[in-house]
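Worked example (supplementary).
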Amino acid sequence: EVQLVESGGGLVQPGGSLRLPCAASGFTFSSYWMHWVRQAPGKGLEWVSRIKYDGITTNYADSVKGRFTISRDSAKNMVYLEMNSLRVEDTAVYYCARGAMGFYYFDYWGQGTLVTVSS
Amino acid sequence: QSALTQPASVSGSPGQSITISCTGTISDVAGYNYVSWYQQHPGKAPKLMIYDVSNRPSEVSYRFSGSKSGNTASLTISGLQAEDEADYYCTSYTTSSTYVFGTGTKVTVL
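After joint prediction of all chains, the assembly is encoded as:
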């Protein structure tokens, strides 16, 4: 069974940093793109970033480029989102999602972890 | 990258059909057949309903269908049921090698 479990959310001050881990299981992790998608309270979904199975190719939304870094550890089946220079508008539930193999959609999602940026 | 445009809300009575539109640009919806649709119930993670414009995963009801014309994709729910009441989001791959979501549509079953 495919499982994605995010953690690391919490309260952080504006300008602060936070790292979100996502633990993957139930599939061959090293064969899939992995994504982060976020949802501000009461708002819509926003794609944040993705990382290729090679761990090298990455892409980011303009809203987080230069502040967030996605990475992965295939030995541990983990994907991470390092968030720096956090802003109030980064407050959201952050979902880890698997990119379907050979396709351009998200076939499995985690339950999300809440990040609150506030003073 | 601006969000794709969806109607804020759509409603229908049980058994009726409704259609949700998703309008983008040549850089996303019109440029690729990589539009997917997700259903989200309150407090839950999104669930894939349609991928590559019109393909339905085996576990999704036949009542859900997708299509595209130019820069507008559509999701149709036929035989509307109470459990279809949820938020729906479209998304598309883009020419910038990123993804863009729609603004979201709240479906209400009257």
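Two points are worth noting when inspecting this output. The mean pLDDT of chain B is 97. The interface with chain A takes residues 1, 3, 32, 34, 36, 38, 40, 45-48, 51-52, 57, 89, 91, 93, 96-104 of chain B (CB under 8 Å).
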